[in-house]
UniProtKB/TrEMBL annotation:
N-terminal signal peptide: 1-19
Keyword Signal: yes
InterPro entries, A to Z: DUF1573, Ig-like_fold
Gene3D superfamilies tied to this protein: Immunoglobulins
Protein origin, superkingdom: Bacteria
Protein name: DUF1573 domain-containing protein
Record's keyword terms, sorted: Signal
Amino acid sequence: MKKVLFTFLIGLFALAVQAQDAKGPVITFAENTYEFGDIHQGDVVEHTFKFTNTGDAPLVIINVSTTCGCTAPKWPKEPIAAGEEGEIIVKFNSRGKRGVQNKPITIQSNAKSPTRISITTNVLVDNN
């Protein structure tokens, strides 16, 4: 009987921890990576990453950072309510770039941990 009660209490504790972890805002992207394919040096391309706040509290995006000035993000400044959708627009300028490019974008918000999305492309150089 003690063993059954102990097992039950451990299971109940595990459920409580899972429920506690699920509280708060959660940013869930429809896609985490976007591939532009081949583009030509000098092209400017952009993609819209759509996300949903799948948590139970408003999501506030504090900052969206990139590793290069060639990548410019635009994000909502107002809170995203639980269950609502939002989008982050990422623009990439290929001027001076060549070959395969992988650009990570880090989203800092009031969610539990930072989230990362990325864009990739292959920049072709015209031989004139």
